[in-house]
Amino acid sequence: MEILHTISELRSHLDRERADGKTIGFAPTMGALHHGHESLMVAASTMCNVGVASIFVNPLQFAPDEDLDSYPRMLDEDAAKAEAAGIEYLFVPSVREMYPEENWTTVSLRVVTEPWEGSSRPTHFAGVATVVSKLFNIVGPCTAYFGQKDYQQLAMLRRMTTDLNFPVDVKGMPTVREEDGLAMSSRNLRLTPEHREQAPTVQRALQAGVTAIEGGERDPAAVEAIVRAIIATAPLAAEPDYIAVVDAASLRTPEILSGEIRLLTAVYFGDVRLIDNVGVVAP
Ligand code: PAF
Q1: In CATH, what number does 2-173 get?
Q2: Which atom of ligand 1 is nearest to the CA of 28?
Q3: Nearest atom of ligand 1 to the alpha carbon of 58
Q4: CB of 54 closer than 8 Å to CB of 136
Q5: Class assignment of domain 186-278?
Q6: Could you tell me the pTM of the whole model?
Q7: CB distance 128 to ligand 1 below 6 Å
Q8: Is the minimum distance from the CB of 127 to ligand 1 under 6 angstroms?
Q9: Residue 29: CB within 6 Å of ligand 1?
Q10: Smallest CA separation from ligand 1 atom 1, residue
Q11: What is the pLDDT of residues 170-198, one digit of tens each?
Q12: Residue 219: which of 264, 259, 245, 256 has the closest Cα?
């Protein structure tokens, strides 16, 4: 595996690979890699001829009160994991390499970014869309792998890729879970043992919503009430920030559930905010 720090180096390697007829799989990350990221890297390197990953803690997607400075940076460990996952080129640019001048251009999307995570983090998604646009332009034609765990991010990036005609095939990969169903996240390490024990209730609650839809329930408010009631059985769970029962592409709440539906929630356990989501088709 080669670690590359400049855009020009990465571009010249990937241009050569494409000239040799190779397909490129790309897994963008911010590092602090866990099994969820590793599954994206394995997909990039096994489903395409050449696996590329990036590690870049993108300042644009952090609000001033968020944890940019304390965000974990552990390049040696991450590089070992990327190599074990089959990555051939690991792109690790500096902030100066990505943003050599004050950024005057921002990519932002309407509708899909406005509710849910967007209402508590109003500048976050434009920061993600902007850096991913830059990464897509740097990497070039490829298949890009993102986790379904950050479902709203995935829905936004799918729409952005269509709207802006990026020559990129965006694939959403299944959320990697602990044995008890808790979605993997670097934040899980910050849960107390008591919070950790109750945290899988979130996944169980979402699954109960899926079961209701599969059983014929078509009223989003009724499904939301089922999910809310089950989360409330975990005494250490705060009132959810939101429970969304929405169309999987627009993330809007329909009057009657039909087609691809996504159930999303964000719940605090102590000071740790957990997000999770599941999908279901309402025929
Ligand atoms: O999901 C992430 O890790 C980040 O938001 C991403 C897509 C790498 C952009 O910085």
Answers
A1: 3.40.50.620
A2: 8
A3: 10
A4: no
A5: alpha beta
A6: 0.96
A7: yes
A8: no
A9: yes
A10: 29
A11: 999 999 999 999 999 878 989 999 999 99
A12: 256
